[in-house]
Specification:
The chain is of the alpha+beta class. It is built from 13 helices and 15 strands. The protein has a 15-stranded mixed beta sheet that branches. Strand 10 and strand 11 form a beta hairpin. Helix 3 packs antiparallel against helix 9, helix 4 packs across helix 5 and helix 8 crosses helix 9. It is globular, with a radius of gyration of 23 Å.
Length: 511
C-alpha cells in the first residue's frame, strides 16, 4: 500500500504554475502532511487505509466509501484528471478529498460521484477534525489558483462544511438539491400523519401484500453480481414504455453498480434483498449501509406485481419502518448491520417474510444514475403510479450529534427516514420535514471570476425555469390569476444563497 511519503502527479503536472508541480508534498502542518494522488492504480491501493479513515469519520455516507468512489472512477473517470488530496499523520490517513478535474463549463475540481451519488463529501478524521481540515483546505487553495473548487450535494453538517468555514479566499454556499425526511416512528404513527382516507388505503395495500405471500431473502456476497443484474433487468421492465432515467440503461452504470455492490456487500456497506412470489424473484432492492445512514438506493420490480395490485412502495416503506423498529430495539449498527437478523413476523406489509431475511428500504431513486430523474413527461406518464413510488429512495439516518460542525441543520435525533433528493409532490403526502444540500464554491483571487460566472449561470437557469413554470400555469389558468415570476438578483451578497439547479443536474459529471 502506498504510504504518505509518496504522491503521484499526472504527466503534465510539471508544467510551470501547476498546482501539482513537484508532485510529492503539498504542505506540512503540526505533524500532518498533504500529498496528492493522481494515478488510478495508486488510488486503488489506498483502499485499506481509506476504509479505516471512513470508519473514523462520523459524517461519512456510503457514497464516500472507497468501493463506491473507485468503482465510479473506473466507469466515469477520464485519464489524467484524477486529483485525490490526502492528509497524513505518520502512516495514518487523517483526511481525504477525492476530486476530478473538469474543463467545462468552467475549469473546476469536483468531487467524484457525479449524478449517481446523492450525497458528496470529503473525509476528515474525528480525532483531528480542525487541523486536518485546515491543511486539506490549504492544499485545495493551491489548486484553486487555476481551477474553481466546486463541492456539490453536500449534506448539512458534512465534513466539507469545515473546508468552507476555514477557507480564506472567495467562497459561496449555494442551495443544491432539496431533501425530505420523516421521523423514525412506527408505521401506525406515520399513518396518523396522513389524512384518514389515505391511511386506510395504505393499510389495505399492506393487507394485500400479506395475503399474496411475498417473501424476502437477503442475497449472499457470492450472488451479489447476479442480483444486481436481475435488479437492472427488472428495473428496465418496470419502466418499459415510460420515461426511464437514461443512465440506468447505460452499460457503464451497470458495470459500476455491479462492481460497487459486490465489494460493499462483502464489507457490510450494502445489502441486496430479493422479493419472491413462490420461487420467482419479482423485485430486488439495493440498500447502502453506514453507521449513520441507511439508504435504499435502487430497486427493480416486475410489472406483474402492479398487475396483481401490489403497491411496491408500500411494501418497501413498511419494510424500512420495520428495520427502524429493529434498530430502536437495540440491533447492531454500522458495517455489521447487513448481517443482523430480521424481525420476522412483526414486520408490517412483509407478506409473510422469512424470519431470517433482511428488511429492504424503499428504493427507486429519481436522478440517481448520473442523469436527471424522470422529467415532467415521465411523471405525467407515471401519474397513475405515484402512490406506488411513495417510498422511493427511503433511508435511515442516525445522526447523534457527534459532529458539531457550524451550520448543520440535519436533525440529530436517532432514526430518520430520509426520502433523499427531490421535492416531488407525492412525498408531501407524508408531511415530511425538509433539509437542503449545499453547493460549496471555493476560489482564489485568480479564479474568483469563475465563481462569479457559475453564480450568474445558476441565477439565469433558475430564472428561465421560473418563466417556463409561469407559462405552463398561464396556459391552463386565467392569466390574471397567475403571478409573474420574481426577478432573481444575481448580484446578491456572498452570504446570500443563490438559486441552485434542479435535482439531478449533471454539471459535475465527467466532461
Amino acid at each position: 500500500m502506498p504510504g504518505p511519503g509518496r504522491a503521484w502527479a499526472p504527466g503534465r503536472a510539471r508544467a510551470r504554475g501547476s498546482a501539482w508541480a513537484g508532485g510529492a508534498r503539498g504542505g506540512d502542518k503540526g505533524g500532518l502532511r498533504l500529498t496528492w494522488c493522481c494515478g488510478e492504480r495508486e488510488f486503488a491501493a489506498l483502499a485499506e487505509e481509506w476504509e479505516r479513515l471512513y470508519a473514523r469519520c462520523a459524517t461519512a455516507t456510503p457514497f464516500q466509501s472507497h468501493a463506491w468512489l473507485h468503482s465510479w472512477w473506473l466507469s466515469y473517470g477520464r485519464t489524467g484528471r484524477l486529483r485525490v488530496a490526502l492528509v497524513w499523520e505518520g502512516t495514518r490517513l487523517r483526511a481525504a478529498a477525492a476530486l476530478m478535474a473538469v474543463p467545462f463549463p468552467v475549469p473546476s475540481l469536483v468531487l467524484l460521484g457525479g449524478g449517481v451519488s446523492d450525497f458528496k463529501d470529503v473525509l476528515v478524521d474525528d480525532v483531528c477534525r480542525e487541523p486536518a481540515a485546515r491543511l486539506l483546505a490549504d492544499g485545495l487553495a493551491k489548486a484553486a489558483r487555476t481551477r474553481l473548487v466546486d463541492l456539490g450535494e453536500v449534506r448539512p453538517g458534512a465534513a466539507a462544511e469545515l473546508l468552507h468555514a476555514v477557507w480564506r479566499g472567495p467562497h459561496r454556499a449555494l442551495e443544491d438539491s432539496r431533501c425530505l425526511h420523516l421521523p423514525a416512528l412506527p408505521m401506525d404513527a406515520l399513518l396518523a400523519r396522513l389524512a384518514r382516507p389515505r391511511a386506510q388505503r395504505f393499510r389495505a395495500k399492506l393487507r394485500r401484500i400479506e395475503t399474496l405471500g411475498v417473501r424476502r431473502r437477503t442475497v449472499s456476497p457470492a450472488r451479489a453480481g447476479e442480483a444486481v443484474r436481475t435488479l437492472l433487468r427488472l428495473h428496465r421492465l418496470q419502466w418499459q414504455g415510460r420515461g426511464v432515467t437514461p443512465e440506468h440503461l447505460e452499460p457503464r452504470f451497470a458495470a459500476h453498480l455491479e462492481r460497487a455492490a459486490e465489494a460493499m456487500v462483502r464489507t457490510g456497506q450494502a445489502r441486496l434483498t430479493e422479493f419472491r412470489l413462490g420461487e420467482e424473484v419479482l423485485a430486488v432492492d439495493l440498500t447502502l449501509l453506514a453507521p449513520r445512514l441507511r439508504g435504499g438506493y435502487l430497486y427493480g420490480a416486475h410489472p406483474r406485481l402492479r398487475d396483481q395490485k401490489v403497491d411496491v412502495a408500500a411494501m418497501l416503506l413498511s419494510a424500512a419502518v420495520s428495520d427502524l423498529e429493529e434498530v430502536a430495539g437495540g440491533g447492531e449498527r454500522g458495517a455489521g448491520a447487513g448481517k443482523r437478523g430480521g424481525s420476522g413476523a412483526g414486520r408490517r406489509g412483509s407478506g409473510g417474510a422469512e424470519a431470517d431475511d433482511r428488511t429492504p428500504n424503499a428504493a427507486e431513486r429519481t436522478g440517481a444514475a448520473g442523469a436527471p430523474g424522470p422529467d415532467s413527461t415521465d411523471r405525467a406518464a407515471a401519474s397513475d403510479d405515484r402512490t406506488t413510488r411513495a417510498g422511493d429512495r427511503t433511508s435511515h439516518a442516525d445522526d447523534r450529534g457527534a459532529d458539531g460542525t457550524k451550520g448543520s441543520t440535519l436533525p440529530n435525533e436517532p432514526g430518520i427516514l430520509s426520502l433523499l433528493r427531490g421535492n416531488e409532490p407525492y412525498k408531501h403526502h407524508w408531511r415530511p420535514e425538509a433539509t437542503t444540500n449545499r453547493r460549496l464554491l471555493l476560489a482564489s483571487r485568480t479564479t474568483a471570476p469563475l465563481l462569479g460566472a457559475v453564480v450568474l449561470d445558476l441565477a439565469a437557469r433558475q430564472r428561465a425555469k421560473a418563466v417556463r413554470k409561469w407559462w405552463r400555469q398561464r396556459a391552463g389558468a386565467d392569466p390574471t390569476a397567475v403571478a409573474k415570476p420574481a426577478t432573481t438578483d444575481a448580484s446578491a451578497p456572498a452570504s446570500t444563497p443563490a438559486p441552485a439547479p434542479a435535482s439531478g443536474d449533471q454539471r459535475q459529471g465527467p466532461a
